Amino acid sequence: MRNVFSVNKLRRIAIVGVGLLGGSIGLAIRSAGSAAKRIGIGRRMSSLEKAAAFDAVDEITVDVAEGVGDAELVVVCTPIGVIRSMFERMAPCLPKGCVVTDVASTKAEVVRLAEAIFPKHVRFVGSHPMAGSEKTSVEFARADLFQNAACIVTPTRRSDPATVRSLRVFWEELGGHVHLLSPARHDRVLARVSHLPHAVAAALVLLADAGDGTRYAGPGFGDATRIASGDPDLWRDVFASNRKAVLRALDSLGSELGRFRRILETGDDRALTAWLARAKAKRDAWIAKRYAKKEIEP
Predict the structure, then answer these.
(1) DSSP 8-state code for residue 73
(2) Per-residue pLDDT averaged across 67-81, rounded?
């Protein structure tokens, strides 16, 4: 049986793509007390130099083979649109027994690619830390980004159990609370709690702007639409790679809005209050759990 690793026992960790998430992983690794050499891999030396200046990584390179060659753990933080080509570039260079994970917002397609591309001596399991913002640059990276954040690990029947446990330990040591979901279930759930909210935020902005309403908008509008400021190219790839699940989530949203419409049409104020109160109670319960000092899933 393979050993379960701890971040404090690793010597070399490669981070492919050192933006907000990659940079925060690098900072969190050091904050967790690890002395591992953090290798930053990217396309532009200028961006990597910025990551090094922020102490997100220790060494930098644009040479993928050089960066992953001796790594015990590789965390791929590139956009979904380039993840296939990155996997193909990495595959011949990964050392035997190396653990590889990623932080992509969709999982079924990414995991399928990884299991098809990586050689058998590489241990891949997908991950998705539910942390970040509409900002993407390393200058917004934080060592505490994953504190109390849900971190989803997505094993399949082909996944090595020790690798799954190792990645669970890894995200817990970075401050997260780990949930195990299949790649398909991950994509169905995330369509509702992440991908659809981004589409709705974008739609609200476009709706308001069509009537010149944004000039009158207040902070509530800003809170509800903050994520619409996310990178359009990144989100295009998210929606494209999770198309079916997002379409189903749109249907469900239509049904819920239809319920709200019927309540308004009937003038049933009691039902309107109950509908709003139910949403408030659900969100308040999530907030209380999300920001609790300790949130440990059995």
Answers:
(1) E
(2) 95
Given a cut of 60, whether residue 269 has pLDDT beyond it is yes
Give the strands of the sheet with 12-16, arranged side by side. Answer: 59-61, 37-41, 12-16, 73-76, 99-102, 123-124
Are the CB atoms for 29 and 144 separated by under 8 Å?
Answer: no
Q: Which of 125, 128, 17 is nearest to 67 (CA)?
A: 17
The Cα 81–Cα 235 span in angstroms is 10
pTM tops 0.70, yes or no: yes
Specify the DSSP class assigned to residue 205.
H
Q: Is the pLDDT of residue 240 over 60?
A: yes
Rounded Cα gap, residues 285 and 3, in angstroms: 38
How far does Cα 175 stand from its chain's mean position? 15
Residues 52-71: pLDDT tens digits?
A: 999 999 999 999 999 999 99
In angstroms, the CA 123 to CA 256 distance is 42
Which of 14, 284, 24, 56 shows the shortest CA–CA distance to 151?
A: 24
Smallest Cα–Cα separation from 178: which of 123, 245, 125, 122? 125
| SS3 call for 10 | coil
3-state SS class at 166: helix
Instruction: Return d(Cα 263, Cα 272) in angstroms, integer.
Output: 6
| Among 146, 166, 126, 168, residue whose Cα is nearest residue 24 | 146
pLDDT tens-digit series, residues 150-187: 999 999 999 999 999 999 999 999 999 999 999 999 99
Token pair for 206: 């476009």
